[in-house]
């Protein structure tokens, strides 16, 4: 994200459901229904509406940055993880998997932390740092990963990944609550499109 804009990052991340659908088709021969395809498209348009402030010219003015391919690789990797996660035979239980993910992340980040300490110096441990690290460890890392693993295994990769498109909605809502940002019509239109898209994607067909 450091090497691209927040808008580009959100757009690439919004492609997650579509990328997951393609990978699920290649690996597991899972197909999106027409209704699910419409839902994914609707939610994607909703995100574009929110981040562009309903101005198509803003999207056309975007530049491709060095970080965009890296974001795309991350999206593909996360989609592969989601597809294989749904195939229970390939992976351990949710709690063991969560431990493996946390341990792997710690091992990968340790060399970079040591380099930063050697060059910049150790960070100052303050109350704010402790609170921030505790929040990051418990909510985005531990709980979010656990519930994500559970939802993918329960719903399947295609139906679970569509909920990623709620990130801009919650981001806008929290910005209004905590930062005092204003609510505009494009927020409402985008959020409605995203919710409609999610509903179309996850709602099971009724039995006639």
TrEMBL record:
Record key words, sorted: Cell membrane, Membrane, Transmembrane, Transmembrane helix
Protein name stated in the entry: EamA domain-containing protein
Keyword Cell membrane appears in the UniProt entry: yes
Start and end residues of each EamA domain: 2-50, 67-202
Membrane topology, as annotated: Multi-pass membrane protein
Primary localization class, coarse: membrane
PANTHER family per the UniProt record, alphabetical: INNER MEMBRANE TRANSPORTER, S-ADENOSYLMETHIONINE_S-ADENOSYLHOMOCYSTEINE TRANSPORTER
Membrane-spanning ranges: 6-27, 34-54, 66-84, 96-115, 127-148, 160-178, 184-202
Entry-linked InterPro entries: AA-Vitamin_Transporters (IPR050638), EamA_dom (IPR000620), EmrE-like (IPR037185)
Pfam family, one: EamA
Keyword Mitochondrion included in the entry's annotation: no
Compartments, as annotated in UniProt: Cell membrane
GO-annotated cellular components: plasma membrane
């Amino acid at each position: 994200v450091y090497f691209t804009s927040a808008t580009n990052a959100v757009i690439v991340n919004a492609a997650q459901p579509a990328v997951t659908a393609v990978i699920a088709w290649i690996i597991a021969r899972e197909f999106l229904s027409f209704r699910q395809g419409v839902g994914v498209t609707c939610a994607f348009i909703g995100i574009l509406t929110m981040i562009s402030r309903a101005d198509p010219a803003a999207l056309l003015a975007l530049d491709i940055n060095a970080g965009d391919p890296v974001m795309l690789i991350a999206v593909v990797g996360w989609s592969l993880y989601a597809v294989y996660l749904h195939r229970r035979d390939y992976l351990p239980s949710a709690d063991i998997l969560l431990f493996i993910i946390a341990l792997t992340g710690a091992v990968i980040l340790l060399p970079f932390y040591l380099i930063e300490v050697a060059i910049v110096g150790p960070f100052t441990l303050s109350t704010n740092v402790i609170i921030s690290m505790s929040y990051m460890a418990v909510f985005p890392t531990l709980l979010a990963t656990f519930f994500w693993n559970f939802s993918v295994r329960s719903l399947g990769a295609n139906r679970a990944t569509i909920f990623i498109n709620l990130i801009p909605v919650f981001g806008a809502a929290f910005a209004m609550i905590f930062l005092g940002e204003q609510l505009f019509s494009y927020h409402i239109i985008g959020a409605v499109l995203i919710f409609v898209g999610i509903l179309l994607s996850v709602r099971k067909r009724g039995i006639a």
